[in-house]
User: What shape does this take?
Amino acid sequence: MSKDRLIIFDTTLRDGEQSPGATMDRDEKLRIARALERLKVDVIEAGFAIASQGDFESVKAIAETIKDSTVCSLARAKDADIDRAGEALKNAASGRIHTFIATSPIHMQHKLRMQPDDVVEAAVKAVKYARNLCADVEFSCEDAGRSEIDFLCRIIEKVIDAGARTINIPDTVGYAIPEQFGHTIGQLIERIPNSHKAVFSVHCHNDLGLAVANSLAAVLNGARQVECTINGLGERAGNASLEEIVMAVRTRGDLFPVETRIDTTGIVPASRLVSTITGFPVQPNKAIVGANAFAHESGIHQDGVLKHRETYEIMRAEDVGWNTNRMVLGKHSGRAAFRARLEELGISFDTNEALNDTFQRFKDLADKKHEVFDEDLQALVSDVKKAAEDERYKLVLLDVASKTGETPEARVVLNVDGSEVEASCEGAGPVDATFRAIEQIAQSDSMLQLYSVNAITSGTDSQGEVTVRLERGGRIVNGHGADTDIITASAKAYLDALNHIAAGVPRAHPQAADV
Ligand code: KIV
Ligand code: ZN
Assistant: This one.
């Protein structure tokens, strides 16, 4: 029996980035977009082009780079948003404008302050306007999960007539329950007379932990596009996780009449890349991509797996990209091998100087830790790119004294706007002392919200990857740093966060009340 294609629409770079502190810069987004293309994601939602100049540039760069996936930009149902999305996508091999407006009574009344008839009119106008700029237009009914089905039928019929080719039904606040949500999707497809002219899509949030279950229920009822993110990243509790959706329909091919074109062996590398770039660690027991997802602890399970793996394993670790973490390079590797591996990872450099600088740092790292893995290279590249940027704070020197029974002390020398400044402080531990010394110089008036350390690879010579989250005046930023010395990694992460605060460019949020 031939199966329908389930379109995988990844929104890690748009909804994922709306997760507090998950902001990514243009280069980081490009690296993730390339990984998504390698994964064979059908549609990459690259951002919300009107949010800021930086967001526009990111969508544009991704549209100009990616050839094998459709690149999409979000736009509210407003001419200015749609123009900006169209402009960012104009050089895409395949582009899509995704426009939306809220359709639930609570959103129409309190957020939009619009009458339902006016919402229908705005939606139709937006879709027609977008179709003038792009043949591929998606329309979303924001908060569809709490919208009235009669109203959904009415507005969707009209937007399909206006030219929308994909109709997305978001459960914006994660309120739906699988059976009910699946039924709604089935009803919409059945009741809307022109539903056969569009692909029905779902976009589920995970507030009740049901995003994947709701999406799968929708697929069983006729949805043929699922919007999801790597590691389930996304606003609040996140979105449906790409890896879980893809592996569920593949593993239970006996139940799902669909298949995706995802190269599942790219799943774990993509998960690690997103985690490294955003600083959001993957919990060990996370399905598919968690460190324990394929680890068997109990003796009974191990015995069964050794005798016949299917006794306890429903998927093979290698099929989702575990164990592809080859040792790629060591201290004897040459520049050509180094460059080739970076190219395979989708990493390129604008100048030879940048390549040489990265190569030199790779040699230094290989001296310290012998085996350099893909994850090390990703962290190294992030570090080099940051160092090359015109940043306010740079680490010049860190000297930490920590001895059993004595109070730890840190001396820090920073380059601030081109001049060197020094400070020393004691602290509860070496990290605390380092952060205090940095703060003595920066006086940032920010609050530390999160400090987390992860080993990038296994072994005690692994680089420590540190995330620091700071909050100032309601704005949240994440900073990242990696080093084989975790105190240095911590200082780099703190300074990275301070640099984000200093760079502070305001961005519009697509779902903010201001329409
Ligand atoms: O959750 C949501 O409703 C969205 C839309 C903008 C698609 O992210
Ligand atoms: Zn969303």
Q: What stands out?
A: The radius of gyration is 24 Å. The pocket of zinc ion (ligand 2) is lined by residues 15, 170, 172, 203, 205, 235 (CB under 6 Å).
